[in-house]
Amino acid sequence: MYGKPMTHQPLPDDGLQLLFFCFSDASLRSTRRRRTMPSSWNPLDEEGSKKVCNPAAPYLNVYRDFEGLYISKIFTDENLRSTLSYQPRDDDVFIVSYPKCGTTWMQHIVYNIFRDGTPPGSLLEMMTMAPFLELLGAEGARAMPRPGAIKTHLPFSKQPYSPKTKYIYITRNPYDCCVSFYYHTKGFPPYLFEEGTFDQFFDMFVEGKVDYGDYFDHLLSWYEHRNDDNVLFVTYEQLKKDTPGVVLKIADFLGKEQYGDKMRQHPEIFQKILGAITIESMKKINAEMKNMGQNLLSMPPEAMPEFMKSFRDHMTSHGDKPVKGVILGTIQVLHKMIHTTFCL
Which SUPFAM superfamilies has this protein been placed in (predicted)? Predict the structure, then answer.
């Protein structure tokens, strides 16, 4: 019912064992930082090794340290600064994860719980009701219609925090996370990794030289708060194995009487929510997201004004102008960045 997981090129057995061993034993944190690979893996060729070790390799220059957060230049200093200084409201809900750990699925789940299984009609609506804080900046969260859920990929130490605010943290085993993150990085031109290999990305991943830094540090920072009253800690694997049970748990966390009990008393609403969060149901929004990204990447600078006019006309016909203005500004920044910062 919920669709099959994406099929990726599998890691060699030794690589899989290494990742799970590190995942299950925090005492190996120093071991995984060493630049060593399982003996059964073929080492990178000489040219590939130079690409990883050479600080002048283009894809390594995409990232920088921003106030202790290792992150790419895809995210502007201005929006990151406003993100880190954002003061959460008591009624805020945050969906937090390390990249490629199930964030989008969780966003759809929370969105549909809030709206009794009525899915978003467009990508714009999804971005409006579930703003990506680091990409849009604090204004995206302030302008968000409520109830809504703010998306971040921040470790606990950088997360805008209030004991009265709710946080849903979703994680995923490091094997699937790493492989998915590799394909994401390779497929998004601003990362300058189109020619990169999995061996190179694996090195970057275990050393924390990717967006949001070290997977293990990120996970453990939130794992320490898994029993906090305002934190719900969920794994992608749990969600996939028992989708109805975990969705109900999420609903209770968001508001037992308002959402959880209503779903128990009205099974038709519960089933509508479950139907709206299948892979098939989410395809439309995901396709829109992919097409929008491809349009931005392929569009020459001189074509941008006409695109922005069309997008602005679409937004003004759908209300919610404040947050959509923020999204519009972000698109302009992204396009400028793609054609200047990364010299595409």
Answer: P-loop containing nucleoside triphosphate hydrolases (SSF52540)
Structure tokens at 124: 């714009």
Residue 225 annotated as catalytic:
no
Number of domains in the chain: 1
Long-range pairs for 121-129: beta carbons < 8 A, 24 or more residues apart:
122/285, 122/288, 123/285, 123/288, 123/289, 123/292, 124/314, 124/315, 124/318, 124/324, 124/327, 125/318, 126/285, 127/327, 128/320, 128/323, 128/324, 128/327
pTM surpassing 0.85? no
Residue 18 lies in a domain: no
Question: Would you say residue 165 lies in a domain?
Answer: yes
- Residue 171 lies inside a defined structural domain of this protein: yes
For 188, the domain range is: 67-280
Alpha carbon distance 15, 198 (integer Å): 11
Distance, in Å, from the CA atom of 330 to the CA atom of 327, rounded to the nearest integer, reads: 5
pLDDT in 10s for each residue of the chain, 344 residues: 433 333 334 333 333 333 344 444 443 344 344 434 333 333 334 443 343 444 457 888 999 999 999 999 989 999 999 999 999 999 999 999 999 999 999 999 999 999 999 988 777 778 788 889 998 899 889 988 899 999 999 999 999 999 999 999 999 999 999 999 999 999 888 899 999 999 999 999 999 999 999 999 999 999 999 999 999 999 999 999 999 999 999 999 999 999 999 999 999 999 999 999 988 877 766 665 555 555 444 444 454 445 445 444 544 444 555 555 555 555 555 545 444 444 33
Please enumerate in sequence order all residues whose Cβ is within 8 A of that of 33, keeping only pairs 6 or more positions apart, or say none: 206, 207
Catalytic residue (one of 153, 225, 314, 318): 153
**Which DSSP string corresponds to 87-98?**
---TT-EEEE-S
Specify the CATH number for the domain of residue 162.
Answer: 3.40.50.300
What is each CA distance from 309 to 297, 305, 326, 332, in whole angstroms? 17, 6, 15, 11
Residue 248 inside a domain? The answer is yes
